[in-house]
Request: fold
Amino acid sequence: MSTVLVTGGSGFIAGHCILQLLDAGHEVRTTVRNLAREPEVRAALKAGGAEPGARLSFFAADLTSDKGWTEAAKGCDYALHVASPFPPGVPKDENELIVPARDGALRLLRAARDAGVKRVVLTSSFAAIGYGHGVRKKPFDETDWTDLDGDDITPYTKSKTIAERAAWDFIAREGNGLELAVVNPVGVLGPVLGPDYSTSIQIVKGLMDGAMPGSPKLGFGLVDVRDVADLHLRAMTDPAANGERFLAISGDFVWMRDVARLLKERMGKAAGKVPTRQLPNWLVFIAALRMPEVKLLLPELGKEKHATGEKAMRVLGWSPRSWEQSAVDTAESLARLDG
Ligand code: NAP
Reply:
């Protein structure tokens, strides 16, 4: 069994990666910005069924500082670099996202190389693949890169694209044998482990809360967090994953209205507030004035972007559950959290 570093242990995807690594028998180290969060992270993992005790250790490290990364990486066989800012709104200064995403990835890669880590798996995003291309029929795949000169670029898509490019450049120029594999998830749903869940959970949370009187004409790819974690583990050890990117999507593009209809159908009384009608675009623009998470999605209104996870299935034997199952499991976990 190996020792694996997972960065950003307080995060949604990182938490599920830690659960699966522990389940597979690995020793896990994780970084948090502040060690005071250790009890909270352990409680979240316990909610996910794990009580790892000494098999899990915590290190303090911030993406914006050199401190702590060397100690965290020392003695590790692999590292999953999951941490990166993913806020609900748009920051005033795009560098609030770009700098930690890019420089944090480089800090982790440098520390991993110097510690003799065999392979790093970087959590990138569909944000580094499918933006800046306008509307197109051809499904996006791993050969596509976001065009930062396009008109739908947000600070977040920019941060993920720049960070992933910087990681590949680092490996090519100064990796010194360190291996890199990249996972590019679309919108991630699935069971939340605690109240500090990811921005992407708002897709289901907002519908369940009836935050809007209808569904905006928005669509996206969806994938379950447990399948994203599983793909990280496959990309960590499979020889065929070295030097490759893997788009993580379950099925294809889904309209938000379809998610709303599914929740209404499957969640019974708990879905009482879920709206099923389609909101006209002008109303969404007005809602965006009050809701930063809606503003972030405005450039996507009405756009249909197809993508495929065929490569991960073919090369790594990945087999994701349906987006429908994932959306229902998300809603059920939120309902449990609310008691
Ligand atoms: P999340 O729950 O918000 O996790 C983000 C993690 O990054 C948190 O642990 C956070 O720590 C950490 N982080 C942010 N800024 C940091 C900094 N300056 N220094 C150290 N740690 C920092 O979101 P998530 O969905 O799990 O996202 C994890 C990764 O997946 C990110 O790279 C994101 O871009 C990527 N991704 C997510 C989705 C999605 O739909 N969820 C889709 C594609 C890609 P704190 O708890 O201290 O803030």
